[in-house]
């Protein structure tokens, strides 16, 4: 297994573990206000993991894909993040 792929998989496992832990905490506290606080903290985790895993994947493919394709991939990530932030 390539090291870039291994790091991507590990980061996704970490992200999933954080999500499950947050859900468990929300359930344990049984308080809407605390659940919203936990959920707002998760809003930072998702995009960060997306950017880091995509960056790792692109760096692993850097010799196999063109610069233009890399540029479009990063632009796509930026658009996803902008789309999540627009009300």
Account of the 3D structure:
The protein has one domain. It is flat and about 50 Å long. By secondary structure, it is mainly α. The chain has helices at residues 3-29, 32-60, 67-85.
Secondary-structure topology with pairs:
Blueprint: H1 3-29, H2 32-60, H3 67-85
What are the salient characteristics of this protein?
mainly alpha, 86% helix, 87 residues, single chain
Strand % is: under 5%
**CA distance, first residue to last residue:** 41 Å
Helix content: over 70%
Let me know the number of strands: 0
What class do helices, strands and sheet pairing give?
A: mainly alpha
Written as H for each helix and E for each strand, in order along the chain, the element string is HHH
* Structural domain tally: 1
Main sheet characteristics: none
Report mean pLDDT, rounded to a whole number.
Answer: 90
Over the alpha carbons, how many angstroms does the gyration radius reach?
16 Å
**What global shape is seen?**
flat
Low-confidence stretches: none
Helical element count? Answer: 3
Transmembrane segments: 41-61, 67-86
Protein name: YqhV family protein
Keywords: Membrane, Transmembrane, Transmembrane helix
InterPro entries: Uncharacterised_YqhV
